[in-house]
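Re: the request from the purification team.
They wanted to know what the chain is likely to look like in 3D before they choose a buffer screen. I agreed to run a prediction and write the result into the notebook, where they can find it.
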Amino acid sequence: MLIGAGLVGLGAALLGWAGYSSLRPDAHYTLTLSPAPGDAVKEFASLGLAADALQRVAITSPDERRPIASGVVVREGARLAPLVWRNEVTEPILFSDISASDIVKVVSAIREHVSGDSVVLAWWDLSRAIRMATKRDAPLDDARASGLLIPSAWTEVAEAERARWGAGVDPQASESFERFIDALLSSEQHGADALTKLATGKPAYVAVHISDVWKAAAARPGRYSIGYKDFPSSGVSHGVIKSATQWMRENKVEGGFAAEPIGGATRLHYFTRKGDSDALIAKLLPFSTSNPAQLERFELVYQHRGWWVYRLRA
């Protein structure tokens, strides 16, 4: 079950207009919420979400005619959880790409595989979606909205966005979420022990998405690092992988990697440091150095595109 350079359905939203580089704080972008259109409501009918809880989100800039990011969120009080997200620029705007069909499949699978007396440990945005759509216990949340994918030129608005997406969350919840991040960046054994403590004695499952590795890097920029490089291609092939691994050798990149087809190119996602491949988050996701069959404390129970759900063994 060795996972090598297999295609990664990275919803890290790095698709888009390759030449777009004008995302600036002084562009005065606007994020608006409005009632979700009827077709969006129908897409989530199987999840039993109230129609008035679903809202369309659009991020616009006066420099562009169409939204630079858009989606559908579900609201619970002041808390927002993205269910659909589409980026139209090179850098991801806040979240990775998510399609309605994918999130419905994943949330439905969690409802099927996770018993009512269990907890699901996941990043705060997925945790909210799980709580609202499955009624399962997904206790993690974060008032700081750690791991938001803020464009590099938007650092001046980062705090405002974290406040927006962290609204309505008890600040004390961030302490548990910090321990969750630390667990993902630890070894398998230490990470599993830390996650078990977060489960407070209940049977536990861990749900991760390939974009979580980028969120972890955003949350811990000095501790965890990942990069990417594009290679011309009509899709992933042995030739492209050979070129990519040669480039890694020439540039002395020793960490694990994953490949993703992007239009006419193949994007190589790689850890810039060899040691980062040993972190639990890397082992739970399909990087060249990972092998779920060798995990002692985690049993894979469901996988769809970039989502992986594991049962945590005691």
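For the purification team: Residues 104-224+279-312 form a domain with the Rossmann fold fold (CATH 3.40.50).
Please add any questions underneath this entry.
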